[in-house]
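Final report, Chapter 2: Outcomes

The project's central promise was a pipeline that accepts a single protein chain and returns its three-dimensional structure in a standardized token representation, suitable for archiving and comparison. That pipeline is now operational. To close this chapter, we reproduce one record exactly as it appears in the project archive, with the input sequence first and the structure output second.
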Amino acid sequence: MIAGIFTGAAIHEYAAADVIKSYADNITLFTDIFLRLIKMVIAPLVFSTLTVGIMKLGETSTIGRVGGKAMIWFVSSSVLSILVGLFIVTLEHPGAGMNLEVPAEAVQTGLAVSGMTLKAFISHTIPTSIAGAMSDNEILQIVVFSMFFAIAGASLGEKFNAPLVSALDVVSHIMLKVTGYVMYVAPLAIFAAISSVIATQGLGILLNYASFIGGYYVAIVLTCIVLISVGYMVLKRDVFRLLAMLKDPVLVAFTTSSSEAAYPKTLDQLTRFGCSRNIASFVLPIGYSFNLVGSMVYCSFASMFIAQAYNVHLSFSEIAVLMLTLMLASKGIAGVPRSALVVLAATIPSFNIPVAGILLLMGIDHFLDMGRSAINVLGNGVATAMLSKNEGMLEETGTVPVEEVKA
């Protein structure tokens, strides 16, 4: 990452415009290859681990109880992260003094925001084809199909589903092995992603937005502290061991700006920590669709920043409704490119906040996405560990998964 920053800055400073464009276009090939390799693993890994996890959980009452606890925590963490972002942006006022004028004509952001309705979200959740869902890496659709498939399989009893469970368990371990090979490409992909952005934009863009970026990352760090504090209440001192083990997947998410890139490694580290593989395989994919704490911090911070920049004054009730709308709208956009920007573009016009304000953020979105991707991974890891502990399915030593201890 450091090498990428220095290389990008040097190219931006000394190279001609056509050289900069050529470099930025070509070097990102390594990032594209890495993300494609990771996405190649995601669908079979989610399907195999989630199906095995649910089948091994057994009774539907257990599945419902764990799922219910997960959703309660996901909503609670979303509210907490929104409040943290709102607190910091109100305290700092990064958009104050910009005094931007609302454009007379509608501005095109280039973001696809159509269909952001409850009906569209529910319809999109149900896959018309599992093959199509897997080919498009629609995690939420894969989760829905896997849950139907696994619950039906579990209802047949161990006598019938044992061979399938064993086979899918092998598939999941193979996918994790493949991930290990893919991770060798990660350093090159990280270098390519960072150097490309810096070469195109220059270091100056970070200085121009220093107040916004600084305040945003203060909110991110504060949210991390809140999550870790809640985790400490449940996991006690084990939470620090968990943080040490999640360091690598969090760094992968941060430097690649993709929480998807960290999914396989996160699952692997959670089982090494001692989480029940069944719980981790069940909770983690759902968390990727519903536990977007980083996106919540970003949405609350960015929407209020744009309102401040255009001198749009919102009442307390309007702010409350805006935050609730952002929270609900974000739940159906996992895997959508620039998903947080899409949620903003679809939501803020209803509150008389100019959508043109999103253009202020698009140039630095890569640097903002780094933070929200990293904290999404951390939030999902902490949630999974807490639920494993709460269910009495966390191996205290953290050396081997609890299923292997029982075996």
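Archive annotation: Residues 398-407 have pLDDT under 50 and may be disordered.
This record, like all others produced under the grant, will remain available to the consortium after the project formally closes.
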